[in-house]
Structures are given as structure tokens and as C-alpha cells.
Amino acid sequence: MRSWLLALALTLPLASAQESPSAPSGIYKSVVRIEVASQIPDYSTPWNSGRFSGGIGSGFIIGKNKILTNAHVISNSRRILLNIYGSPKKYAAKVEFVAHDCDLALLSVEDFSDFEKLPVFSIGDVPALESQVRVIGYPIGGERLSVTRGVVSRIDFSTYSHSQADSHLIVQIDAAINPGNSGGPVVQDGKVVGVAFQGLRQADNTGYIIPTPVIKRFLKDIEDGRYDSYADLGVADFPLFNPAMRKAFNLPDDGNGVLVSTVTPTGSCDGVLKSGDILLAIDGKEVDSAGMVTIDGEEVNMNEVVERKFSGDKVALRYLRDGKPNDVEITLKPLPQARMYAVQYEKKPRYIVFAGLVFQPLDTNLLRSTKLDDINVRRLFADYVPKGGFQKRDDIVVLTRIESDPLTSQMDEFTGFAVDKINGVEVKSLKHANELLNPEQKPEFFVIDLFGSDRPVVIPSAEIEAANKRIQLGYGIKRLSRLDEE
């Protein structure tokens, strides 16, 4: 996670000199103000409904009843209202498609008639380095349209702060992108060259935009009526700068080739590449020793080749194994298990309350809201995808809380441990844990083994029903479990 990146719908402003056109003409009128009321799930007490919040963002019209914005602007929304420039009228909107992995969303309004005569933005190309762009939107602090001018200073492949796990092409500009600008268009020569979406905490006048290859891919993906997410190459690489390493792999000192460090089980390259291979080219583009390729004259991460493709597409790989070159074609597929490492939205937390013990599946949302310092939990989390932990367990179930009750007295030491077995059976998922805790024939005791704990948790069956009633009444818990992300 790169904490220095900051999504900007609801965050502190960055200083900037801006111009506020008193009567914007033409295409400016198609930039809308988005007002969102949201509800943030509570992962620390998952039976609660969560806190309410709100924020301001921007969006722009790209077609008939098609309004593009950032996913983080409308995340966890309960109500979305739009304003056209110069009109006090608010229009109810809904989310048609959302892509949290690339921070984009498409909205529609119930009645588009008032928008019909407004011009439509067209999508351009990636802006060149040192070229000037304009960021248009409704930053917090006013209801008038604002325009910020900046120059493109970098084109990179970097982490998107909204999910904190996904990396895509990114364009840096030397203009601040303020809260409220999020989702607004970045324009050059009358065309959209990006969507404003995040800024830099440590610097003024530095903003980031989602460039057009990411936008176009999102719009192409949803053409069939659903968003399918990104495919994944399923490999981790290590740079080959060190002359001694290159010599050990019998590589010439030509700056080409990157080491394959791990191959994700069940991923696109599983059974094709293996740890220790040297990846030389992807789709005919030479891979340098830093894992970079050249696309449209720019040096970008080799994964950008995969970024522009879809699940089911073919990718040609050239690699070196035992000093011999090999050519192979792989079929791309997604890696849904990797969402473990991404922040999730629009999902209620899953949980089980059992005689005061609270069990939850491990993911990034839980890590962000609960103190989980146990080394075994951290290891299980880190190894879940790279080492194929998901092949054994659909969920890593964690004992996150122990509510105070006579039955749970002196059990606090067990908080924060991952569950290994219940009555001798390995726990595969939260649903499986619920089945093991609620069998047709109850045992005399429930014995819960935890990773890293010297002794198990032991609960007498005869006392569970009374304990559940006390816990529900004392803590206002209406449901003892939620097993699906509703």
C-alpha cells in the first residue's frame, strides 16, 4: 500500500490557485456536481449498521444518460444527487456500473431530458509529457465550477489508493486536485485525457489522473452489461540489475530480462512459467531488467500489456529456462482470490457470534478496522494468494472479539487468533465454521483450536443458548450471524 497517495472525494484539500469561470460555455456545462450520502460498514462491530457520511465529487457526460465519475465518489452510497451548472435543481442518480479496481463508475439519472441538449465529452489519448491540461470540477468550498491548469510531469504504473491493492497506468500533473474534483474530466484540446482521482499528501500542486487506456478499457468491459474486472498475469518478478545475478543465470549484460520470483497457483501462468525463469518478452515487446516494456514510446511496467486485455485473451511469452529460450502462448484469466488484499465496498461484513465469541473472515477491511498483530494471522494473510492458501481455505476465519459474559471470562488472551479447527475439523470458510458450530447433534464441548495458541478455546454446549441470549440483549445484536455479503 502506498499511503502517500490519497483519493480525494472526502479528504483534506491541497493548496492551489484556481480560476472559477462565472459563465462557462460549451463543454464545461456537461461537468456535473455529485452529492453523495453514504453509509460506511462497521467491521469492528459487524452487526451494527455503520456510520453515515457524505461528500462531494464531480462527473461528466460521455453519452446519453451516461455520466462518468470515480468509484470512490459513490462508494457505499445510499443516495446520489446531481446538479447541472447554474441550476439549483437536484437530480436523483443511480450507479449503473462500478469498478473499484480502477476507481471508475458510470451513473445515470431517472430523467435525462434536462441533459439532452448538453454537449458530450469525447475520449482522447494519453497526454504527452510537458503538455498542458485542465482539471474541471466542483472542489469542496463552493458550488461553482472550477478549472485548474497543469502540465503533465510523469506517466507511470502505480497503486490506485481507492482499493489500495490495484496498480494501473497513472498520469501525474503539476496541478492540485482538490476534494470534490474527484471524478471530473481532465481536458486537452477539447477532449478528455483523464479523470481526476487522487493527490499527493506531502506536496502541493501535485495531482494524479486516470488516463484514457484505463477509461476505454472500463467502457469496453461494460458493453455486455456487466463489469468483469481485470485479468491477471499471475506472476511476481524481481529485477535483474545485479551483474553477479545475471552471470549466475548466464545472461548477457544487455539490460534485458526479468526474473520470475513466484507463480500464483491456478493463475494464468501456472503450469507454464516457474520460479527462476527469465521473462524476456511479452506480446513481442522486450522486457528489460526492471520489468519494463515500451508502449507508445513510453517505458511502462510489463503488466500494462495485460492491463489492456480481457479474460480469455491470449498473450505470447518468451522466457529463458536453463539457458534455453522458449515461446509459449497463455490464456488470461482473473484472479478473484486477490481481492483479499483490496479494500471492499458495498458489502456488509460477514460474522458469527457464538456464545460471545465473534468470528470474521480475514481481509483488508478487517485489518484496517481491527488490531490484528498475531504473526500467524499476518502470515496466513500474506501467503493467501502467492502460496495458494486459497486452495485450502475459502476464508481465513479469525476470532476478532470476545464479548464480556460469565461464559467468556478470562478468555481475552484468545482474541486476534486465526481459527484452525473446530472439534478436530479444519475450518474451510466462515460458512463451514457456522456449520461446525451448529451441528444437528451437539457435542458436550466445542473445542476450537487456534493457530499459535498453546491451548484451545473450550465452550460447554449446555451453556451456549443462555449465553447467546445474554449477549444479544446486552449488546443489541439482532442477528447472530451474517454469512453472505448482502
Automatic annotation (TrEMBL):
UniProt superkingdom: Bacteria
Gene Ontology biological process terms, A to Z: proteolysis
UniProt keyword terms in alphabetical order: Hydrolase, Protease, Serine protease, Signal
InterPro entries, A to Z: DEGP_PDZ, DEGP_PDZ_sf, PDZ, PDZ_sf, Peptidase_S1_PA, Peptidase_S1_PA_chymotrypsin, Peptidase_S1C
Domain PDZ: residue ranges: 255-332
GO molecular function terms attached to this record: serine-type endopeptidase activity
Stretch forming the signal peptide: 1-17
Source organism (scientific name): Luteolibacter ambystomatis
Domain Protease Do-like PDZ: 344-478
Name this polypeptide is given: Trypsin-like peptidase domain-containing protein
